[in-house]
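The instructor's notes for this session suggest beginning with a concrete chain rather than abstract definitions. Hand out the sequence below and ask the class to guess, before any prediction is shown, which regions might be ordered.
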Amino acid sequence: MIIPRSAIRALLVAALVAAAAPADAEYAGPIVDAHSHVPNATAVDAYVAAMKRHKIVKVVLLGVGGVQKDDAAWIAAAARKYPDLVVAGQPVPDPTSPQAATRLEAELAKTRARVAGEVHVRQVSRKIDRSPADPAFVKLLEVAGRQKVPVVIHQELDAGATTALEAGLKAVPSAVLVLAHAGSATPAVLDGLLARHPNLMIDLSGMHFQRTPALATEKGPLDPAWKTLIDKRPERFLIGVDVWAARLFEPAMLDRLMSWTRRILGELSPEAAERVAHRNATVLFRLE
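After discussion, reveal the predicted structure:
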């Protein structure tokens, strides 16, 4: 049978359209924002309104590494106002203080927080360079391990910081460390770390189109190396929006960030998307 040229042209056009169309639908399931902050006592109201618009079922509010002296009060007030939506983290201002472990144990006894942090371990812009293998930090991790409270850390990895992180992970295998913003590391580095340390989790917070490194631009596809790693180890990743500055709480910006998050999750396999979006956080932070 001879196929008319017009039919061939139509088939080619259809194929080109299909190739140009997005391959993945936006993820439509529930999301737990596993890493965000509040910059004042009232910002949570705008964030909760956006949560309801975008089907975000929980937000984990963390301290900002001792930068904001009122973190604990703001987070506690947000949890009281929105008890079904806000998960209150326990701030840890200085993990290398000799009193850090004792203070954390006392605070956890009062607040019953299910996560501690965000702890600033290595942050180049603030000239902070600490080690999770520091004796005081190890004692803090021992408390966290006994209490089954994961510790979220901000640690920008280079060779030295990676060695220190591994030493801390080995020192207290019962403690789970959550590496915020993927440690600003490459997927290849993280793949090795995850293979060696079962008590390490990675949160993808703040890796959106306004920050570097980013998983994707605002409209572009998920970086292939990140997609490969997350699909390979979906049980080890959490998603987070990581709002912190007041300007990020404008409704239009929140809509952009949350829509981007759903789009990126939609590029993962369905199983990986479910795990990263909410199932891992639900288990890790004991939300059920």
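Then share the key points. The longest helix spans residues 5-20. The radius of gyration is 21 Å.
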